[in-house]
Amino acid sequence: MVTKNDVEQAFPELKWIKNTTVRDQVITMWVEAAKHGGWKSLDDIPFTLLVENSGKLVDHTRRVTKICKHVAEARDHPINMDYLIAGALLHDVGKVMEYTTVNGTVVKSDYGHRFRHPVSGAKLAWQLGLPDDIALIIYAHSHEGDHCKRTPESIIVHHSDFIDFEIKKSMM
Fold first, then answer.
1. pTM
2. H or E element in which residue 99 lies
């Protein structure tokens, strides 16, 4: 079972979130998603099933979060840093429910065949009472967000995610 301590160790970037309520909500999201997906360790979850040997979801999430922080710091436009960092840390949390292990191989779960990770992540965020702007970042980070109005924070996460994905894909 994934614990609060496991999440805190996996994501030292949590300390960048100044609002302790938001920080605790991010931790709770990861714990609840892991419980729903039946994962015992965050290190067992791959970044993507689209690229063989893609690496760990935790590593991808940390890279995206760091990219987001740098982009926001380079902007003169006001950015809600707590929401940005929370959204970056949670953008792929739905993959924890979208994937499962069958006979030692990670595959798409039954739940994942019904709900892609942007939808399941946003759904969980709403269920756990996270702010709508964070749920939007989760929902809009991928193609699902192409038909809604993205906030500056969700634009940063969307592009940062694709930067990391495209670089990973180009190296294979």
1. 0.96
2. strand 99-102
Question: Which residue matches tokens 């609002």?
Answer: 19
Residue 135 CA: distances (Å) to CA of 54, 87, 128: 26, 8, 10
Structure tokens at 78: 């006001």
For residue 108, what is the DSSP state?
A: E
Residue pair 85/13 in contact (Cβ under 8 Å)? The answer is: yes
CA distance 86 to 81: 8
Instruction: Say how far apart CA 21 and CA 74 lie, in whole Å.
Output: 26
Identify the CATH number of the domain defined by range 4-39+52-170: 1.10.3210
Residues 11 and 61 sit within 8 Å (Cβ to Cβ): yes
List the beta bridge partners of residue 46: 56
- pLDDT tens digits for range 65-117: 999 999 999 999 999 999 999 999 999 999 999 999 999 999 999 999 999 99
Asked if residue 132 lies in contact with residue 87, where contact means CB atoms within 8 angstroms, the answer is no
Write the DSSP string, 33-93: HHHHHT-S-GGGSBS-SSSTT--BHHHHHHHHHHHHHHHHHH-SS---HHHHHHHHHHTTT
